[in-house]
Specification:
The protein is an alpha+beta fold and 442 residues long. The protein is built from 19 helices and eleven strands. This is Cytochrome P450.
Length: 442
């Protein structure tokens, strides 16, 4: 059956389960013209081998200035001056600027450093579980009670965001990366969020300049003051850290837990064999990653890409999720297999733009999933699977809420947690999760 051209990549059914469409696209060829809800068209790469080659292709640049007028007319969603002030971060830079900017953050996310922080992350996770309500006819929303909180607490610890500023961060500021076009009725609210986030970033910069520490935020402010970064680059890097540094992990917690509730035998095996968690996290990342699609790439001149002529300035996007379920790379790719002989998946990308926070995300996911599985016996969805609301994000996957139930009789198993009272300070007080949570039935 031939695919339409361009292929629409939006709608509730697509967001709930895009994999049948991706399978058809892979079978038809490695690259396809696609359409996003804002009217933006792009060239989408699907297969694993083609995705790797595309992500490593030096002809493709990330800087938005490479985009042509057709792309700009639809995709430049963020208004000026904010676009120029907040969109010059790592995701939109090419070498040598990308290399220099990336060097400023790599130490903060180095595997050895984040592994040393694992006991602290464990305390944070345990505190959030301790604060969860244990009763209610509709269960609890694991996004509000855990998944939206834990990654931000971890991020604040890693980048040196002081508690008084962390307490003022609003999660809805992350919505400024969602497409809201100039004629959309929600545009005024979108621009208000954008201005609020800018004001917050300015406050963070001023605070770290007045009260410098040894955290990443302070180092970035110092780099700006010493001429290594422009004011726009500093603000953009903080913007990227605050938005991209937490929301994908929130979403990955939800996709992983949905996958495990669909495979209760795997969930129970992880409860019985917690040492499997690192390998399980890799398989869960492969099976349903939070980074569904990459951000834009552009050719500086017309060129052939996987046998198709792509005009200069047209956007090229890679489907990491489609690549990670390519049967030519992963046998039985739609199966959650905790014993899979894991090859390199592409959940964190590939090449020079490989996610710099990958090591941190892996430790976060191991701690988060290990804690929830160990301490919430009988963990299961509190609503039918098909009633879950998947976020309508263009590039990411995750559920807006995750209503779950668990067994509350007896004492929860804490064997998956760590006793770290001798090595780190007690975590800050965590407010209890609201009990009066309801989910609409559709």
């Amino acid at each position: 059956m031939p695919l339409p051209d361009p292929v629409p990549l939006y709608g509730p059914e697509y967001k709930r389960d895009p994999y049948p469409l991706y399978a058809r696209m892979r079978e038809a060829g490695p690259i396809h013209r696609v359409l996003f809800p804002s009217g933006v068209t792009a060239w989408l790469v699907t297969g694993h081998a083609a995705a790797q080659r595309t992500l490593a292709d030096s002809r493709l640049g990330k800087n938005h200035e490479l985009g042509n007028d057709r792309w700009r007319a639809r995709a430049s969603i963020m208004p000026e001056p904010q676009h120029s002030q907040l969109q010059v971060h790592l995701l939109h830079q090419d070498a040598p600027k990308h290399t220099a900017m990336r060097r400023l953050i790599t130490d903060a996310f180095a595997p050895r450093r984040v592994e040393a922080l694992r006991p602290r992350f464990q305390e944070m996770a345990d505190a959030l579980v301790d604060a969860m309500p244990t009763e209610g006819p509709d269960g609890i929303d694991l996004v509000r009670c855990f998944a939206a909180r834990f990654p931000f607490q971890v991020l604040a610890e890693v980048i040196g965001l002081p508690p008084h500023l962390a307490a003022r961060f609003r999660r809805e500021w992350g919505k400024v990366v969602a497409p809201v076009g100039p004629t959309d009725p929600g545009r005024p609210a979108y621009e208000a969020l954008l201005r609020g986030l800018q004001d917050y970033i300015a406050e963070v910069v001023a605070d770290r300049r007045e009260h410098p520490g040894d955290g990443l935020l302070s180092r970035l402010v110092t780099a700006r003051d010493e001429g290594e970064l422009s004011p726009e680059e500093l603000d953009s890097m903080i913007f990227q850290l605050l938005v991209a540094g937490q929301e994908p992990v929130t979403n990955q917690i939800t996709t992983a837990l949905v996958a495990l509730t669909r495979h209760p035998e795997a969930l129970e095996r992880l409860r019985a064999e917690p040492a499997l968690m690192p390998r399980a996290v890799e398989e869960l990342l492969r099976l349903d990653g939070a980074f569904e699609l990459t951000t834009w790439r552009f050719l500086a001149e017309d060129a052939e890409l996987h046998g198709t002529r792509v005009p200069a300035g047209d956007s090229v996007i890679v489907s990491l999720c489609a690549a990670n379920r390519d049967p030519e790379r992963f046998p039985d790719p739609d199966v959650l297999d905790l014993d899979r002989a894991q090859g390199p998946h592409l959940a964190f990308g590939h090449g020079t733009h490989f996610c710099p926070g990958a090591a941190l995300a892996r430790v976060e996911l191991q701690v988060a999933l290990g804690t929830l599985i160990a301490r919430l016996p009988g963990l299961r969805l509190a609503v039918p699977d098909d009633e879950l609301e998947w976020i309508p994000a263009v590039l990411g996957r995750g559920t807006a809420a995750l209503p779950v139930a668990f067994d509350t009789s007896g004492t929860p198993d804490t064997s998956g947690t760590s006793d770290t009272s001798d090595t780190v300070d007690a975590p800050t007080t965590t407010p209890s999760c609201p009990r009066d949570l309801k989910w609409p039935r559709t």
